Amino acid sequence: MMNVSIPPIRREMAEQARAYIDQLTKPPGSLGRLEDVAATVMVNEMATFASAGISTGEEKGEKQA
Question: In terms of C-beta density within 10 A (0-12 exposed, 13-18 middle, 19 or more buried), how is residue 42 classed?
Answer without folding.
Answer: buried
